[in-house]
Amino acid sequence: MTKSTITRERLEQLADNNTICKVSWDERIELAQIALSAMDCEPVAWAWHYREQWHVTNDERRAEFVAKMVMWLYCRSIVTLSQRR
After folding, report:
1. Which superkingdom is the protein from (predicted)?
2. Span 25-49, mean pLDDT?
3. β-strand 53-57 against 42-50: which pairing, if any?
4. Is the alpha carbon torsion for 64, 74, 17, 30 positive or negative?
5. Cα 43 to Cα 30: distance, rounded to the nearest angstrom
6. Helix %, strand %, coil % for the chain, to 5?
7. Which residues make Cβ contacts (< 8 Å) with residue 52, sequence separation at least 6?
């Protein structure tokens, strides 16, 4: 995944309802690209707890029959504004 130009601190500031801040057009586009990329994520591994141990598999068919928890997500890379220019 490509590196985002929006910092974690900036995202926290934007997410805080008590903070009034302006969002630039570039930030709006980048946030939309990040959101779209997150929507395309797919699970690639699952975990379940059985007899006091945790087990992990990347076989989706096996994961269907056990109590599972998605472990990792794979997201396609996003194109940042700096790459488009």
Report:
1. Bacteria
2. 83
3. antiparallel
4. negative
5. 24
6. 35, 25, 40
7. none
3-class DSSP state for residue 19?
A: coil
pLDDT of 40-67, one tens digit each? 777 888 888 889 999 998 888 888 888 6
Q: How far apart are CA 14 and CA 7, in angstroms?
A: 11
Residue 50, amino acid: Y
Residue 4: its pLDDT value, please? 66
Q: Can you give the pLDDT at residue 53?
A: 93
Distances (CA, A) of 65 to 33, 44, 46, 49: 35, 16, 11, 13
Take residue 33 and report the two structure tokens written for it: 């690209």
